[in-house]
Amino acid sequence: MSAGLAALLDDVAVLARAAAASIDDVGLAAAKAGSKAAGVVIDDAAVTPQYVRGLAASRELPIIKRIALGSLRNKFLIILPVILVLSQFLPVLLTPLLMLGGAYLCYEGAEKVWAKIAHHDAHGEAAERQPDEKTLVSGAIRTDLILSAEIMVISLNEVADESFVARLTILVIVAIAMTVLVYGAVGLIVKMDDVGLRLSQLPGAAVARFGRGLVKAMPRVLAVLTIVGTAAMLWVGGHILLVGADELGLHAVYEAVHHLEEAAHDATGALGGVVGWLVNTLASAIVGLIVGALIVALMSVTFHRAKSTDKAEHTDAGTEQEPAAATETPTVADPKA
Prior knowledge:
mainly alpha, 11 helices, globular, membrane, Inner membrane protein YedI
């Protein structure tokens, strides 16, 4: 009896070690998959703060919380089921879908650039108006959907050889970790001015001076992040399109960018890695800007025609009503009365 119990305990110990090793493997795979998506995480953290610019300080964290919850819904209710099903049954559709998302990012980035160029005079009036929180949150969640899809697909590619259960577990870990990381960082960024204000009220000249400097610096930091966020949309969107086109057999543009990156890498010695990455990033952003500008132009023409048609119909309807109004006989007082 004791021998049987000992054998049972040995079996349990073996299973426990196997389970622990499996957990370690999942953790390592999740860390590896998440690290590959680090660039998109940085972009997401740079893009999001622009959505709370102009809001009252008391509304910043609640808005970020709503965006974060929307991000989790994006990941768990839309992205995760779709990419797992597609990876299992129709993996060929993952790249085209991701490219559509990349094109949308290019459009958003190019639209912001065009708005800055064409409507800079009206920007001050727009800044004075209180932003519509519902619109801000909806826009942020739409953008997050694309960036989150990029994070999840990159992560999926890193664990494509794992079993379905392992893939699911790893992607759930990545989804939660990335959401906490991104929106935790965003919350910290947008509340740094409040931290500076609190520090400026503490005793100690050095601490107070640092707090005042932080308060003065944060508007500039947020302005820079807005620019970085727009550039990130173009970079990520362009990079998605470049890689996706290469995977679909359209190699020319991707190979041209790759050759430029290699040439820059070889020509700059010890700094080759950084310079090569910058060249690739700049080329991706240019591609994103070109594609985004084409989409903006197409959308502008389409909506301009739609608005012109609506305006013409409205004018015609008004013209048709005028004769009827003219036939009405005005009431004139009887002079005999």
